[in-house]
Design a protein that fits this description.
This protein has one domain. Helices cover about 70% and strands about 0% of the residues. It starts with 7 loop residues before the first helix and ends with a helix.
């Protein structure tokens, strides 16, 4: 399990998330920018784990592929909920970007919020919103990346 000690590096990285996310009321932009922040973090994690990352063009990989590669490289086996939540955010982002069907978008939104709130906020409904869930997901990935690459 990763340590939750907030190092200076972790705090600066989490602050970057807040700097890039819009106001909490702007759900759609929070989903899009949060997805991009997570994607950037996944690419950085994979690059840190590979012996020769320069030979990899990360822009050719889809988000789902980056998630699978990162999960495969991760030495911590206690992070299943993190990877599932990242996948649910990706589904939500894809529905937002590629579909006009509000029902499918609403379903993906509810699925992401329900799952993340249950597993990261112990079901506390106060945090059941896109902004809190995206920041929490990003923060959890920051913690994992720092812990996993320092061992």
């Amino acid at each position: 399990m990763t340590s939750r000690i907030l190092t200076r590096e972790r705090i600066l990285e989490i602050m970057k998330c807040y700097d890039h996310l819009p106001e909490p009321e702007n759900r759609e932009m929070t989903i899009l920018k949060g997805h991009l922040l997570i994607e950037t973090r996944l690419k950085g994690y994979i690059a840190r784990k590979l012996p020769t990352p320069d030979g990899c063009n990360f822009d050719r990989f889809r988000f789902s592929q980056l998630t699978e590669i990162a999960q495969g490289l991760c030495t911590s086996r206690h992070q299943g909920n993190l990877w599932h939540s990242i996948q649910k955010l990706n589904t939500l982002r894809n529905r937002l970007s590629h579909e006009l069907d509000d029902v499918r978008l609403s379903s993906a939104l509810e699925d992401f919020l329900d799952f993340h709130t249950k597993h990261f906020f112990n079901g506390d409904s106060e945090h059941r919103n896109v902004h809190d869930c995206v920041v929490s997901l990003y923060s959890s990935l920051v913690h994992l990346v720092e812990e996993d690459t320092n061992h």
